């Protein structure tokens, strides 16, 4: 899975997950697939990272997180402020119908196979 063409230009991926072990495992999956990965423990930290960078092409977020904003609200904010950034949403407890997702966002339930989540990331990655 190395050498993802969608990220050949140096675009990066942001993993937003409040559970440290789950976040570390997701980050490892994406690093093993050839992504540059940044990590945030909640939506506020994610927005701070996004405000300070212009190379993040994908946000991978959990729905349930502490703080002022959950993953769905974060996804809507990302789609509004950075419409070219792809958004992949995940949850182990919440199942979403497609009408509940922000426009352009994709959902994958936990537990997910690493190969499946990488395939979805490749599919929603912004063009070079």
Walk me through what this model shows.
With 128 residues, the protein is α/β, with parallel strands linked by helices. It has a single domain, classed as Response regulator (Rossmann fold, 3-Layer(aba) Sandwich), CATH 3.40.50. 35% of the residues lie in helices and 22% in strands. The chain has four helices and five strands, in the order E-H-E-H-E-H-E-E-H. A five-stranded parallel β-sheet has the order 2-1-3-4-5, sandwiched between helices. The protein starts with 11 loop residues before the first strand and ends with a helix. 32% of the residues are buried. The N terminus is likely disordered.
Give the CATH level 1 class. Alpha Beta
**What is the total number of structural domains?**
1
So, CATH architecture? Answer: 3-Layer(aba) Sandwich
Biggest beta sheet attributes: 5 strands, parallel
Percentage beta strand: 15-25%
Number of strands: 5
Separate helix tally? 4
| Percentage of residues assigned to helices | 25-40%
Low-confidence stretches: 1-6
Specify Rg, calculated over alpha carbons: 13 Å
**General shape:** globular
What value does the average pLDDT take? 88
Structural class label: alpha/beta
CATH topology: Rossmann fold
Following the backbone from N to C, one meets helices and strands in this order, namely EHEHEHEEH
What is the CATH homologous superfamily assignment? Response regulator
Q: Give the N-to-C terminal Cα separation.
A: 18 Å
Order of strands, widest sheet: 2-1-3-4-5
């Amino acid at each position: 899975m190395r050498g993802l063409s969608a990220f050949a230009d140096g675009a990066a991926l942001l993993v937003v997950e409040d559970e440290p072990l789950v976040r570390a495992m997701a980050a490892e999956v994406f690093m093993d697939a050839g992504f540059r990965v940044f990590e945030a423990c909640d939506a506020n930290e994610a927005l701070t990272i996004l405000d300070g960078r212009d190379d993040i092409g994908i946000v991978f977020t959990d729905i349930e997180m502490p703080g002022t904003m959950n993953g769905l609200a974060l996804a809507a904010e990302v789609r509004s402020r950075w419409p070219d950034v792809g958004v992949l949403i995940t949850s182990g407890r919440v199942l979403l119908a497609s009408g509940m997702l922000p426009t352009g966002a994709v959902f994958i339930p936990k537990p997910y196979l690493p190969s499946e989540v990488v395939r979805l990331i490749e599919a929603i990655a912004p063009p070079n």
